[in-house]
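User: Good morning. I'm curious how cytidine-5'-triphosphate would be positioned relative to this chain. Could you predict the structure with it bound?
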Amino acid sequence: MEGFKISLNLNHENLTEDQHLILNLTNGYSNNRKLKKLTEEYIQITDGDKKFVELKEKTKKEVSERLAKECDSFGKEKDIIYVDGVFDIMHSGHFNAIRQAKKLGDTLIVGVNIDEEVQKVKGPTLMNDEERTLLADSVKWVDRTETLTPYTTTVSFLNKIGATHAAHGDDIAVNEKGENAYQELIDAGKFKIFKRTEGISTTNLLGRLMMIGSSENDNKFYKPLVGNYLPTGWRFKEFCNDKNPKSDDVIVYIDGAFDCLHPGHIKALKLAKEKGTFVYVGLYDDGACEQVYGKSNPVMGLMERASNLLSLKYVDDIVIGVPRKVNEDMLKSLGIHKVLAEEIYNQTENDQYEAPKKMGILEYFNVTPKLNNQFFIDRINKNKEVFIDKYMKKSKKEEEYEKNKSYNKKEV
Ligand code: CTP
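Assistant: Good morning! Here's the predicted structure, ligand included:
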């Protein structure tokens, strides 16, 4: 409907019977300028359109639905929520935080805290400002992203970016001075809380990543917290798009482990979306990931990886637990038009993309970093002592949080 000109000076005498009908639908609100404008917009759509009759019923329904919605929120101030964070090794807890924050208002701004300040409070991150922003900006619930944001959020900062409230999980964020990073907003009544997602954290993932390729002795040392993310049916449904391809969609398929997401994954998924109009991602199950990438893989379980993918704006739907060898039956059943595979698979002998190749629908692509966890492992190894230290300190704090957390806050 966007793109149609809205005329505020309609000559009501010239309206057809049907246009009057639509106008009458909104008679009760005729003193309301905003709703009147909306009605006129719809009349403008139907005016002079050859498919007028077909459109009439649809338009009537849409007008009444949209008006009902507008009436509900009319007169209410819009809540513009700001949810910020470090979002390092973006995980299901972060995605679930953003999902819940969106529900607390009308518009959502995500802020990605600046490296320099994060370093002082939490130590080094594995991903830099630009990488963390790219990930946050790819989340489907996000309306706008602010990068290089301060760790402590003030009222003047909220005003500057045009937000009405900040939101955070029910864990307290303590700043460099040892104070609550949102205290000023709490005092001003501009703070909203959502439930922190259990059993998943950046520290937890750092521990799991450090297990990859480490010796038995190291394994004893790291003792990563056991991942305890709960993919209940209700929560998983909240991540899903409830979307099926339409008959004129160009359906693209891309598969893999999609473990800890990094800029390479985002580039590949964005490319997939550019190649068509509906993107299916086939997700290897945990056993297949271990076969491909070795012991201690994947770092995130199947349902965590599934939820993460469904949080991204480039993904329309996923196929959970696909075999590594793409099969013709699945391609036909899902009506797939194009299959994308990383260029490295062009050289392998055991060709897992044999079926789409034969069907003439396979395209290779090249992105950096490659779609595996090496991106993170290399960064840990460059600064190993520092990350071990960070892991040990943070995991102690998280154990404390786990012990003392309350179960009062309900997830939205
Ligand atoms: N968050 C959450 N559930 C988690 C982890 C984070 O709801 N399991 C929320 C936090 O409460 C915060 C936002 O996600 O509102 C961003 O968190 P971030 O600053 O990245 O870090 P932490 O809270 O320290 O979490 P992590 O250690 O996992 O990065």
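The first helix runs from residue 17 to 25. Confidence is low (pLDDT under 50) at residues 1-10, 27-31.
Let me know if you'd like a different ligand tried.
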